[in-house]
Give the backbone structure.
Amino acid sequence: MPSFDIDRKIFSQANGKVYVLTGGAGGIGSALVRLIHANGGKVVFGDLNVVEAEKLSAALGHDITYMQMDVTRYDDHVKLFKTALTKHGKIDHALAVAGINESDHGWFDDALDINTVEKPASDLTVDINLKGTMYFARVALPYLRHGNSSLEKGREKSLVMLSSQLGLVTGQGIPLYQSSKHGVLGLMRCLSISAARSGGVRVNAVCPGMTRTAMTDALRPVWEAHKLLDQGPEQVAEALLAITLESINGAALLVDGGEAWDVEPELASSRAQWLGPVGSHTIDAIAKAFSVATLGDGVKVDI
């Protein structure tokens, strides 16, 4: 699996660029806001946590704009991007970072019976992690394309979505979280082709492993007891910033222990092995018939 070397020397290229992101008040999002600001970027971020968001904004001062938002509300995404465009006149990079853990562990509880199953479970994890990311991406793309006179200019624009290591592998006890993060990767794979062709916008995903944030506090004792690999939110933030500045499209960066790898090239090149020759040929034939590129043919749309 090809490694993705995080070149910190390119971080200075963020100077003067306008970044819009969700989930900026804490954890990975907060670390990202700080990193962009430290390298001269302008940040407009949304978050539901007013107290922490205002603390962060006050601490950093200039070129930081906060808007209270709920990522499950489509109109809030529109307001976020309108705010950024009105203030700065352009948007260079958009990152969907907001997310939560499993909100309701009762979805597939073994104790469910024909009576208790009549009560619906909470959809909040999917609403925030997947639907919120879809809302963000839908609004982000036209704002990123706005003002571009050619696709050439679009090479500098990017959309990044936060998935998870659990978007790549099997987990236990978190079906909605895992489903939502798999969905984010599916969205990235689709948009990395269409957005590049139609508007010259690069689309990528970052998939963090265990990261020391408030979201993972409950897991930390087990992690430490077994000496498992982890990382700080600052290390994930570096991968997020780096992928906005590198000329890369359609990547899914696994970030674990502060190191990063792009899982997509090997997944594409080995398609005939895991899908089989017949299935692989069928996918190629369908893609040719509809004149589209697919993950399986290993195509990366150059922009």
User: Anything to note?
Assistant: The two ends are 23 Å apart (CA to CA). The first strand starts at residue 18 and ends at 22. The chain has one domain: 8-269.
